[in-house]
Amino acid sequence: EVQLLESGGGLVEPGGSLRISCSASGFTFSNYGMTWVRQAPGKGLEWVSGIGNGGGERCYADSVKGRFIISRDNSKNTLYLQMNSLRAEDTAVYYCVKQRWPAFDYWGLGTLVTVSS
Amino acid sequence: QTVVTQEPSLSVSPGGTVTLTCALNSGSVSGGYYPGWFRQTPGQAPRTLIYNTNTRSSGVPDRFSGSILGNKAALSITGAQADDESDYYCALYVGSGIWVFGGGTRLTVL
Asked: B25 — contact with chain A (CB < 8 Å)?
């Protein structure tokens, strides 16, 4: 059974940094691209960033480009999102999503990141 | 800037059929945008219903179908049930690894 478990969310001050993680199980992690999707409170879904199965291909939404870094450790079956220069508008639930091109086929339960002073 | 537009809200009667659409501000939606559809109930994580325009995810009943309708991607729900009441999102692949979600449609069954 595919499981995606996000962790590392919490309260951070504007301008601060936070790294969230996604621990994957139930599939061969190194064979699949992965994605982060976020949802601000009461708002819709927003694609944030994606990474290829080997980690070499990375892409970002304009709203986070230059501030967020996606990475993965295939030896640990873990996906990361390093978030720097955080803003209030980055407050959201961040979902880890497994990709099986061209599908987003499994979603995690999400981790809440709150940016506030 | 790429904007994907969905109906903010729709309603359907129990047993009825409803079609949700997904439009692109820069032109027509085609299969090359690999439209996907997702469903989310309050407090829950999204679930994938349809990918690659018309392929149902595992376990999704055939009451849900995806298509290209005119210049938009479309999700049709037939035989609507009370528990179909949810938020529905589409997503389009716009190239260079980037996806854009629509604003979502809140579907009411009444």
From this structure: no
Phi then psi dihedrals of residue A116, to 5 deg: -160, 150
For A72-109, what is each residue's pLDDT tens digit? 999 999 999 999 999 999 999 999 999 998 999 999 99
Alpha-carbon distance A25 to A6, whole Å?
A: 12
Interface of B with A in 34-93 (CB under 8 A): 34, 36, 38, 40, 45-48, 51-52, 55, 57, 87, 89, 91, 93
User: Residue A8 to residues A34, A67, A82, A90, B72: CA-CA distances in angstroms?
Assistant: 18, 17, 10, 15, 38
Tally the C-alpha atoms within 13 A of residue A57's C-alpha that lie toward its C-beta.
Answer: 11
Give the pLDDT band of residue B26 (cuts 50, 70, 90): confident
Are B48 and A105 inside 8 Å of each other by CB? yes
For B63: left if phi > 0, alpha if psi spans -120 to 50, otherwise beta; the answer is alpha
